[in-house]
Design a protein that fits this description.
The protein is of the alpha/beta class. The protein has helices spanning 40-53, 70-82, 100-113, 132-145, 164-177, 194-198, 241-247; strands at residues 10-16, 58-63, 87-92, 117-120, 149-151, 154-155, 187-188, 222-225, 230-231, 234-235.
């Protein structure tokens, strides 16, 4: 086994960069509402292959808005459940439809495929362009089904920093707390992408901010597969993911 990936335990899928929001803090910059997404069957195959070879304990799907491509999300998490991966996580802004029937159906499918930890991205930034009513409806449906659900806000500088965005985020979170939905630690916005353009006034732009999610390239514990199938120096559509990992060598 390749020494650089022998501790691999987490697979992340950026299902699509398409999104229903247009957030000032987004690290990826501007998004369209359509675009490339990971093929469901190929993604499920990656989960099965890696879980059979490594001690995978966590699988995550996110975006963009992953529920614009629900079949891919279902396939990934069904494969993870089939292989006994304990943590099956989805990050979503909760806004993929205004149709109550579709919202209910999607919640049911997520429960059925085995998602057990949903992080709901709600905060001052998402709610500038995303209505709360359908998001709350989605959250309520998940609650009825007993699916693990937490709000997952983005904080400017840090949770304790005093600014209008954080104040508005706290108000929104209180609405979900009244529904019995607790919040995660969330994430601290880095001044990159859209945040560099819209929020730089809150940051020291002469300082270099460390990415808290950066991996040690000599000891990868998580890999992230992009919407076009690319991962590390390969692509899951052109070769088996196990071969990509076996030849991986860090650029150091």
């Amino acid at each position: 086994m390749n020494q650089y990936v022998k501790h691999l335990n987490r697979i992340e899928f950026v299902v699509t960069y398409a999104c229903t929001g247009s957030c000032k803090h987004c690290s990826e910059g501007e998004h369209s509402r359509s675009g490339v997404h990971i093929d469901a069957e190929a993604a499920a195959g990656v989960v099965r292959d890696l879980a059979g070879q490594y001690g995978i304990t966590s699988v995550m799907t996110f975006g963009g808005e992953p529920l614009l491509c629900p079949e891919t999300v279902y396939a990934i998490h069904a494969a993870a459940a089939e292989r006994g991966v304990p943590k099956r996580q989805l990050i979503t802004n909760g806004f993929f439809s205004r149709d109550g029937a579709k919202i209910k159906q999607t919640a049911g499918q997520l429960a059925h495929c085995g998602v057990n930890d949903i992080l709901l991205s709600v905060d001052a930034f998402h709610q500038e362009t995303i209505p709360l009513a359908p998001v709350k409806e989605f959250a309520a449906e998940l609650g009825k089904l007993g699916v693990g659900l937490r709000t997952h806000p983005a904080w400017v500088v840090g949770k304790g920093h005093q600014n209008p965005y954080n104040s508005r985020t706290a108000e929104i979170l209180a609405e979900f707390e009244s529904m019995g939905i607790a919040q995660s630690d969330g994430n601290h916005i880095l001044p990159i992408g859209n945040a560099r353009n819209y929020l730089s006034g809150y940051y020291d732009m002469d300082r270099e901010y460390a990415d808290p999610y950066a991996e040690d390239p000599t000891d990868l514990q998580a890999i992230s597969i992009n919407p076009d199938g690319s991962v590390l120096d390969g692509n899951i559509y052109r070769e088996p993911v196990l071969e990509i990992l076996e030849r991986y060598a860090p650029q150091i």
